Amino acid sequence: MMRHAVIVLTALTLAAPAFAKEHSDTYPVACSELWPAVKDVVKNSGSYVVVSMDNTEMMASYTVGAVRHRTNSVHLNTQGSGCEMVVQSTYRGINHDDATDFKNRVDESLAKLKAAPPAAPAKPADEKK
């Protein structure tokens, strides 16, 4: 019986990429405001390795996973005054869901960026030196 359980579990693990799909979430902010949060997550979260990033098209491809590396991608589409974030992920398992994990990190980064005070303008150079 245990042998059958191991075979079924192995088959499901190997078949996970076959269940890959797109996940879409719409934000009430412009894509130009959401893109910095997406870049922050992809570059600085420590969870992803950047494969490619296009600032003009607002899309990125990245790898995730410690044991079995998976390549996912994200791109932003303008939706009226808001922005649609589309994540193509290749894994949704019992403990992890790549797309939901990514979205949660973007939400945290966006909140952090909105809460940060705006940068102060540069002071003119002191001419009396």
Outline of the structure:
This protein is an alpha+beta fold.
Q: Strands, helices and their partners?
A:
Elements: H1 2-15, E1 21-27, H2 31-44, E2 49-54, E3 59-64, E4 70-79, E5 82-89, H3 98-115
Antiparallel strand pairs: 1-5, 2-3, 3-4, 4-5
**SS content category:** alpha+beta
Question: Largest sheet at a glance?
Answer: 5 strands, antiparallel
Spatial order of strands in the largest sheet: 1-5-4-3-2
Q: Compute the average pLDDT.
A: 81
Number of strands: 5
How many angstroms does the end-to-end distance come to? 84 Å
Characterise this structure.
This protein is an alpha+beta fold and 129 residues long. The protein is 36% helix and 29% strand. It has helices at residues 2-15, 31-44, 98-115; strands at 21-27, 49-54, 59-64, 70-79, 82-89. The chain has a 5-stranded antiparallel sheet with strand order 1-5-4-3-2, covered by helices on one side. β4 and β5 (82-89) form a beta hairpin. α2 packs across α3. It starts with a helix and ends in a 14-residue tail after the last helix. Residues 8-18 have low confidence and may be disordered.
